[in-house]
Amino acid sequence: MKISARNQIAGKIVEIIKGATTSHVSIDIGGGNIITASITNEAVDDLKLSVGENATALIKASDVMVGV
């Protein structure tokens, strides 16, 4: 599959926390860095995601906001 997202970061799934409709999937990308994605529970099930599995974080966003 070809995709347009150029920011592709490989890692390993270290945690999946399922909520009512959304899951938080944490991917260890090395160097003590973790990327966490919020995706639907349906997507977690469809992709058959599990802790310990290799995965790639694909990042394509028009903006990212963080405030303190």
How would you describe this protein?
It comes from Komagataeibacter saccharivorans. Keywords: Plasmid. This is Molybdenum-pterin-binding protein 2. Pfam families: TOBE. Helix content is 10%, strand content 51%. The mean pLDDT is 93. The chain is built from 1 helix and 4 strands, in the order βββαβ. It has a 4-stranded antiparallel β-sheet. It is mostly beta strands. The protein has one domain: Beta Barrel (OB fold (Dihydrolipoamide Acetyltransferase, E2P)). The termini are far apart.
Features of the shown structure:
OB fold (Dihydrolipoamide Acetyltransferase, E2P); 68 residues; four-stranded antiparallel beta sheet; mainly beta
How are the SSEs ordered, and which strands pair?
Blueprint: E1 7-18, E2 22-30, E3 33-40, H1 41-47, E4 54-59
Antiparallel strand pairs: 1-2, 1-4, 2-3
Q: Which topology does CATH recognise?
A: OB fold (Dihydrolipoamide Acetyltransferase, E2P)
Count of helix runs = 1
Q: Roughly how much helix do the residues carry, as a percent range?
A: 10-25%
CATH homology superfamily name: RNA polymerase II/Efflux pump adaptor protein, barrel-sandwich hybrid domain
- Strand count: 4
Mean pLDDT: 93
- Name of the CATH class: Mainly Beta
Shape: globular
Low-confidence stretches: none
Strand order of the largest sheet: 3-2-1-4
